[in-house]
Amino acid sequence: MEINTYIKIPKIKLPDNFEQKPENYFIHIDDKERMQKYITQIDDNYLEGAIVMNYNNRPIMTFRLWDLVGNLWAYLLNAVEEFLVNGKSECYLPDQPIKIEIIENKYDYIIFIIGDGKYGSYIIPKIEFVQSIFNEAEHFFMRFDEYFTPNQYDFHVNQLVKLRATLASEF
Fold it and tell me: Is the whole-model pTM more than 0.85?
């Protein structure tokens, strides 16, 4: 599973066809040179961006679901934590009424549903999904600390440590 985080270039209105050339509107979180170009224009309390997920080269979450990316990472972590306890969970995109559901499926798989299926329903190996979420969330929080207000996501970094320990004890 591949997950990448992108930051929306500030003060640019997205045209209807923005997904054809997303690099014109979004910056990969690891592109330090481009990030530095816009850093003073970006509001780290209202950080718009996208989490782009692919499984077996199949798009799951795309740029079309861009939102408040820091909040979305926090919501996804909370949803994974609830999923690990209850076998199912849900959250919403921070600024849109689009629900994300994680449901336990048989044979160590999960069903990942976006927007009640409007944006897709995917069956993904549970461990691969959870570990990928943990790894990219941690990567996002690390980059956020480098670019913006350090320690803003400390609660979630600590949450990741606990969740990884829980996952290790279960598997």
Answer: yes
